[in-house]
Amino acid sequence: MTRTQRLRDAPVGPGYKWIALSNTTLGVLIATLDSSIVIISLPAIFRGIGLDPLAPGNIGYLLWMILGYLLVSAVFVVVLGRLGDMFGRVRIYNLGFLIFACASIALSLDPFREGAGALWLILWRIVQAFGGSMLTANSAAILTDAFPARQRGMALGVNQITALAGQFLGLLAGGLLAVIDWRAVFWVSVPISVAGTIWSYLSLRETASGRRGGRIDWFGNITFAAGAGALLAAITYGIQPYGGGATGWGNPVVLGGLFGGVFLLVVFCVIETRLKEPMFRLALLKVRAFAAGNLAALLIAIARGGLQFMLIIWLQGIWLPLHGYEFEDTPLWAGIFMLPMTCGFLIAGPLSGYMSDRFGARLFSTAGPVVVACSFVGLLLLPVNFDYGVFALLLLVNGFGQGMFSAPNTSSIMGSVPAAYRGVASGMRATFQNSGTALSIGVFFSLMVSGLASSLPSTLSGGLQAHGVPAETAHHVASLPPVSTLFATFLGENPIQHLLGPGTLSRLAADQREALTGFSYFPQLVSGPFHDGLVIVFSVAAGMAVISAIASALRGRSRRPDAELATATPTGEADPEPQGAPSS
C-alpha cells in the first residue's frame, strides 16, 4: 500500500470537516472565479491573439468565450453529481480538480492567433468548465456528509458565498491581470488548481453513508445534455441580430433550438420516470423544501446574473466616462466599484448560515429575496448619473440579501434529501443555479436591446448629425444593431470611435472630433434610452426576487427525508443524522 493510499484510508478525525470545508471552498472559488474572470479581460485577450472582438464576424467568438463555460456548467453538473453518488463524491471531485488544472495550463499556452487562437481558448474553456462542474456538483454533497446537522448551514454558507463572491472577484482579478498580460488571466488559475489537486488527493476521504454503484443512465444523459445544450445555445444566438431585427429570436435556427431543446427535455423527463436508477431523480421534486428551494435559487440566479451584466454596462459605458475615466480603464474600475456587493456576500453568507442552523432556513431564505427586491427598486429609481454613495449602499444591500438567501437555502435543499442522493441533489441544485446564470444573459440582454432599439437609433442619428457627421453616415451608424453598442460599452471601448471609424472622424473638424470621442458625449447621448431599458430590466429582476421569496416562504417545515421520500425513491434510504438544519 502506498503512502497516499494509507493517508486516504486513515480514519477520519474530528478536524476532517474543516479540511473538507477549506478544500471544497477553494475548489468552488477557483471554478466560479474563472467563470467571470474572462468577461472583463476580453479586450486584452482578443488584442493578444490579434482578433477584433467587435468585428461582426467575431461576435460569435466573444459570446462563446463567455457563455461556453456557463453552458457546460449548466448542462453537466447534474450528470457529474450522479456520478459522484455512483463512484464516490470525493473521487469525482478530485478528478475535477485535475482536469481543471490541466485546462488552465493549456489556456495559458495558447499557441495560435486570430480565429484559431480564439477556438483554442473556447475549447479549453469548455474542458475547464467540465472540471469546474465536477467541483461544484460534488462540493456541497461532500460538506453535507462531513458536517453534523447543527453546523451544516454554516459550512454550506461559507462554501456558497465564496462561490458567489468568486463571480465578482473574477471581474476585479480580470481587470488587474489583463493590464499585466492577457495570459496572466489564465496563469493565475494554474498554481491554485495544481496545489488544490495535490491537496484534495492527499486529504479528502469518502465519508458518505448509503449505497454506492449503479448503472449509468445513458439515455437520460444524452437527452438532457442535448436538450439543455440546444436550449442554451439557442438563447446564446438569440442575442445576436438576425436579418433586420435587433435580436435573433426570429431566426429559424434559434426557434428550432428552442423548441427542439424543450422537446428533448420533455423526452428526458419521461425517460427518467421509467428508470429504476435515473440520472435526474425527479422524485426529489416531490419534496416541497427541495422543489421550492431550487425554484427560488433559479429565479435569484437569473436576477443576479442580469444585475452583474447590466451594472458592468452601466458603469463602463456611462457613469465612469461621465466622471472622467478613460474607456480603456473602465473595466478595471467597474470591478472595483462593484466591490460593495461582494462585501455584502461575505458579511451575510456565513452569518446567515450560522443563524439558520439555530433558527431555521425559511426565515432567512425568505427575507433575503425581499431585501434583494427592495435593492432592485432602489436601483431603478436612481438617475443614470447617480451619487456613488447611494449606489454603493444599494449594492451592499443587494449583496447582503443574496447572502442571507444562499446559505440557508442550500442547507435546506441538501438537508431535505436522503444521504444516498446528496450527489445528484447537489448536481440538480447547481444545474438550476448555473442555468439561471446562463439564462440571465439571454433574458436581460434581450430586454435591454429591445429597449434601446425603440429610441437609440433616432437619438444616435440626431446627435451625430448635430456634430457634423454626414446624414447618410449617421443614419447608417444608427441602423446598426444595438447589440454592437452594448458590446462596445461592455468591453470598455469608445462606441462612437468604433462605430464611426478613423475615416469618418478624420474628415470632421478638430473640435467636432474631440467632442464625439470625448468622455461625456456618448454617455450623455444614450443615458435616456439606457435608463428606459434599465427600468424594464430591474423591474423584471425585482419581480423574480419577489416570486423567489414567495417560493421560499411556501417550502414548509422540513421532515426527515426518509419519511418524505419513502415512496419516492427505490430504497427510502435516509440520512443517519437528524435533519435539523433546514427546519423553518
TrEMBL record:
GO terms for MF: transmembrane transporter activity
Localization in the cell: Cell membrane
Main localization of the protein described in the UniProt heading: membrane
Membrane topology of the entry: Multi-pass membrane protein
UniProt KW keywords: Membrane, Transmembrane, Transmembrane helix, Transport
CDD domains in the record: MFS_MMR_MDR_like (cd17321)
Pfam family, one: MFS_1
UniProt cross-references to Gene3D superfamilies, sorted A to Z: MFS general substrate transporter like domains (1.20.1250.20)
Superkingdom of the source species: Bacteria
Spans through the membrane: 26-49, 61-80, 92-109, 121-143, 155-178, 184-204, 216-237, 249-271, 292-320, 332-351, 363-382, 438-456, 533-554
Region annotation (Disordered) ranges: 558-584
SUPFAM superfamilies listed in its UniProt record: MFS general substrate transporter (SSF103473)
Major facilitator superfamily (MFS) profile domain span: 20-496
InterPro entries assigned: MFS, MFS_dom, MFS_trans_sf
Gene Ontology terms: cellular component: plasma membrane
Keyword Transmembrane helix attached: yes
Family annotation (PANTHER family): MAJOR FACILITATOR SUPERFAMILY MULTIDRUG TRANSPORTER MFSC
Name of the protein this chain belongs to: MFS family permease
Organism the protein comes from: Sphaerisporangium krabiense
